Amino acid sequence: MAKRAALVTGGSGGIGLAIARRLAESGYAVTISGRQEGKLLAAAESLADDDLKVEAVVADVTSEQAVVDLVAEHKRQWGRLDCLVNNAGVGIGQMVDDIQVKHLDLQVAVNLRALIVATREATPLLKKAGEEHGKALIVNLASIAGKQYPALLSVYAATKAAVISFSGSTQKELGSSGVCATALCPGFVDTDMTEFAKEMVPADQMMTTTDIADAVSFLLKVSPNCAIPEIVMSRPAPGPDSGGM
Q1: Could you give the 3-state DSSP secondary structure of residue 42?
Q2: Is the Cβ–Cβ distance between 125 and 80 less than 8 Å?
Q3: Is the pTM of this model over 0.70?
Q4: How far, in Å, CA of 25 to CA of 210, rounded?
Q5: Of residues 28, 78, 156, 166, which has the active-site annotation?
Q6: Residue 229 contacts by C-beta under 8 Å, 6 or more apart in sequence?
Q7: CATH tag for 5-235 (out of 3.40.50.12280, 3.40.50.720, 2.60.34.30, 3.40.50.300)
Q8: What are phi and psi of 18, to 5 degrees?
Q9: In the 8-state DSSP scheme, what is residue 3?
Q10: What average pLDDT score do residues 130-134 get?
């Protein structure tokens, strides 16, 4: 059994991989999941090459059973769970009068339902870790979109607002068990997911994945007596063309 273990969904690149690396470098055995096998295995190899403990599990989080199996596989491999990072996400821009149900359902399934199912399945392990050392952690990747109401991203923003709300409720329910839950709400981060915005906001003016990993490090360092329901991370001067993000 590992001394500390973490599960990161959407861990094959971008924010998820940066967080997974930071956790592994901090001594955690890490499970990363992703939908694309080749990309996921390459990410796992990049961690393993640095002698970091990592397991890769291919999982399509739009499937409830896949999420259930993912948590079960993590438990089988590492025997415990001290940090759950719900990072898998998808954003599709559409005008409200052109929203397609398949895109609506996909964003709800990935951004919200999978996060809720993962939290449900992981809670017994997290409670056990909280009882053991007083501080287990759930990190839910929300977005500043969940607070800023950007145009063209209404469904994405709605799912992220729900993530913020769910995180706060989770904190209230599990806090007495030594489990802290935090929603991270960043603006634009320089990843593949924000390619659509880089004509408005150059990559060098976006946050970095390291910024997000630093936030997770901070959450791990604060005492069990410090509950942080959400962290809003904005660029110094978000412009009107960027929807405030």
Answers
A1: helix
A2: yes
A3: yes
A4: 13
A5: 156
A6: 167, 168, 171, 181, 182, 183
A7: 3.40.50.720
A8: -60, -40
A9: S
A10: 95
The pLDDT assigned to 1 comes to 76
Quote the pLDDT of residue 101: 98
Lowest pLDDT segment from 53-57, 72-76, 203-207, 240-244: 240-244
Q: How far apart are CA 200 and CA 196, in angstroms?
A: 9
Q: What are the sequence ranges of the domains in the chain?
A: 5-235
Query: Would you say residue 244 has pLDDT above 80?
Result: no
CB 134 within 8 A of CB 222: no
Confidence of residue 209 (pLDDT cuts 50, 70, 90): very high
Integer angstrom CA distances of residue 179 from 138, 212, 231: 7, 20, 17
The C-alpha torsion from 200 through 182 and 63 to 188, rounded to 10°, is 10
156 labelled catalytic: yes
Describe the strand order of the beta sheet including 83-86 as a list of residue ranges.
54-58, 29-34, 5-8, 83-86, 136-141, 179-186, 230-233
In angstroms, rounded to a whole number, what is the distance separating the alpha carbons of residues 91 and 153?
7
Joined tokens for residue 149? 């109401």
Burial 195-223 (b: 16+ CB within 10 A, else e): eebeeebeeebbbebbebbebbeebbeee
Question: CA-CA distance, 216 to 211, in Å (whole number)?
Answer: 9
- pLDDT at residue 133 is higher than 80: yes
